[in-house]
Amino acid sequence: LQRIRRLADEFDFAIVVDETIGTFANINVLPAADIVVSSLTKIFSGDSNVMGGSAILNPNSRFYGQIKKAMNSIYEDTYWPEDAIFMERNSRDFLNRVDRINTNAEAICATLQQHASVKDIFYPKCNPSKHYYDEYRLPNRGYGGLLSIVFHSKQHAEAFYDSMEIAKGPSLGTNFTLGSPYVLLAHYQELSWAAQFGVAEDLVRISVGLEDTEMLQNIFNRALNATETMPKTDSEFNTKSYHEFLPSSK
């Protein structure tokens, strides 16, 4: 982000940062941005019953006056009053919920790291790029509630996903834990294009919720156990029948 900031200063363009995933409870990216946007529909609300968003202008930006004038000229207050009531009500315990989600996400990440079927975990705390996140992390705050997993084989991913005893769907930032085959949903018509950039089609995304930490660890351990009858790699799978790796129904 600092590199983008330097480029923006050199070539005179504005930076808009979406901090929905990290949330302003964990990070402060405003010093590096001209505008910070956030989906309040996600964990700020958490209850999945209202939609909303925010845009914060950096008063120190050289574009501030220009952007503020433009926004003043086009802004319309169309937010439905009952939506505002629900959003405010849902957000009252926002900080406490983020604390719980931070804790749960780190526990799930630690559980996943210990299993041989897991190839990569994409979560700020356990990635080589952690220091970039830490540059904007608030003191004593966490790393958010979104993580993605890549397994050593497609069959590992399928067994894990099918065995997860959690809600499944395409959103994120819900008070309950939610899983999705994100790349298949977002890039189904362009999987080969995504693969060129190292994005695995069988990536599993987890949006972590407020459930009991030990319960979540048990859920993910059971899903990981389901991968143990699968081949270690896709090449190994290709030499055997799929049904040879399925657990016995007896």
Automatic annotation (TrEMBL):
Keyword Transport included in the entry's annotation: no
Keyword Nuclease: no
A Gene Ontology biological process term: cysteine biosynthetic process
Cofactors: pyridoxal 5'-phosphate
GO molecular function: cystathionine gamma-synthase activity; pyridoxal phosphate binding
Keyword terms of this UniProt record: Pyridoxal phosphate
InterPro entries from the UniProt entry: Cys/Met-Metab_PyrdxlP-dep_enz, Cys_met_metab_PP, PyrdxlP-dep_Trfase, PyrdxlP-dep_Trfase_major, PyrdxlP-dep_Trfase_small, Trans-sulfuration_enzymes
Family that this chain belongs to: Belongs to the trans-sulfuration enzymes family.
Name of the protein described by the UniProt record: Uncharacterized protein
Origin species: Photinus pyralis
